[in-house]
Write a structure and sequence with these properties.
Radius of gyration: 15 Å
Number of domains: 2
Function: One of the primary rRNA binding proteins, it binds directly to 16S rRNA central domain where it helps coordinate assembly of the platform of the 30S subunit.
Shape: globular
CATH class of the largest domain: Alpha Beta
CATH architecture of the largest domain: 2-Layer Sandwich
Number of strands: 8
Order of helices and strands: HEHEEEEEEHE
Strand content: 25-35%
Keywords: Ribonucleoprotein, Ribosomal protein, RNA-binding, rRNA-binding
Distance between the termini: 29 Å
Number of helices: 3
GO molecular function: rRNA binding; structural constituent of ribosome
GO cellular component, one term: ribosome
Family: Belongs to the universal ribosomal protein uS8 family.
Largest sheet: 5 strands, antiparallel
Length: about 130
């Protein structure tokens, strides 16, 4: 173990594991970044909903997972791109696409956390946090 913690990778692993276990929801330690990423997942239809829960500490995000009529998770792929040891950035002209635009890329930009489509609209680049399909 390297000793470097990566809260975003932990967040994504918790979502994946909860989906594999076909859970209705998962409670994840909250942060501004995770809240922003979860809001994007909600807006793009990858989760049902989420709520903030006060636990007298940092708080929790209760993320309600979404499944189709065949009990398949709405999130088919959730992949971390930029990591603490290897940051990856893209400018507005070179933003990656997921599955020819069917998926999304989540970026941390100077204007906040947003999807690749929003970043293109605003003409900004940033750190490529994750790919979702």
């Amino acid at each position: 173990m390297s000793g470097i913690s990566d809260p975003v990778s932990n967040y994504m692993a918790q979502l994946r594991n909860a989906q594999e276990a076909e859970q209705t929801y998962v409670d994840i330690p909250a942060s501004k970044l995770k809240r922003a990423m979860t809001q994007i997942l909600l807006e793009k239809g990858y989760i049902k909903n989420f709520v903030n829960i006060d636990d007298e500490k940092q708080g929790l995000l209760r993320v309600y997972l979404k499944y189709d009529e065949y009990d398949q998770p709405a999130i088919r792929m959730l992949e971390r791109v930029s990591r603490p040891g290897r940051r990856e950035y893209a400018d507005s002209d070179n933003l990656p696409e997921v599955k020819n635009g069917l998926g999304i890329v989540i970026l941390s930009t100077s204007r906040g956390v947003m999807s690749d489509k929003e970043a293109r609209r605003f003409g900004v680049g940033g750190e490529v946090l994750a790919k979702v399909f």
